[in-house]
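step=predict obj=NOC4L protein n=254
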Amino acid sequence: QLPTGLYKKVLVILHDSVLPYMNEPTLMMDFLTVAYGIGGAISLLALNGLFILIHQHNLEYPDFYKKLYSLLDPSIYHVKYRARFFHLTDLFLSSSHLPAYLVAAFIKRLSRLALTAPPESLLMIIPFICNLFRRHPACKVLVHRPGGPGDMSEDPYIMEAEEPSESRALESSLWEIQSLQNHYHPDVAKAAAVLNQSLSEMEDDISGLLELSGYELFDKEVKKKAIDVPLEFEQIRGLFGKKNDIFAEHFSLD
């Protein structure tokens, strides 16, 4: 039983400062699986160590994707360890052998949560979702469903389902990304519009977007070269814009 603060400090360094120097890294299996089950930031941080044990030491974790799916909540776009989490989630969802229903559930849940995400997270998650479509073409039915979301009286996707297989994600459509095409931030709207066209085969590099911050977005907008925008579509007549204005006889606008 470790204090929460100490738990986080241990998990942050475990994957690169402890596991590589252990003769039997598999001894950490129980510790990491318990940490992964705690929830919140501790579960996110346990992913690094679990990835090493699964990838290099043949750890079998039957409910791994169910737990990963349950970690997706509204806070995931705001937490301090967002970049680390999405980097590892990208790795875990890279296998072409994953069933379509599982990937579709992740796509749908990430899209639903994106409706309340900040712009810097949206600019990362939209290319992330596009990459999932490139790896798993069977999921493209979410985008190219005949009739689209307009023909659906309600969304069959069950957000509350704990099992991805019970979420009915493959029966749904990606109306959430379509909604983001009207986002107030022009870069987000432009990124979301990519799904209206056929996706290229080459995956987007999201490494530079994982740690994008709101400050960087604001700084980029401020430094943009300003364009003069005409605000008046009719030429002013007279001093106060009225025809036959008596002031126009005595004053003029230069």
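step=describe
The radius of gyration is 25 Å.
step=end
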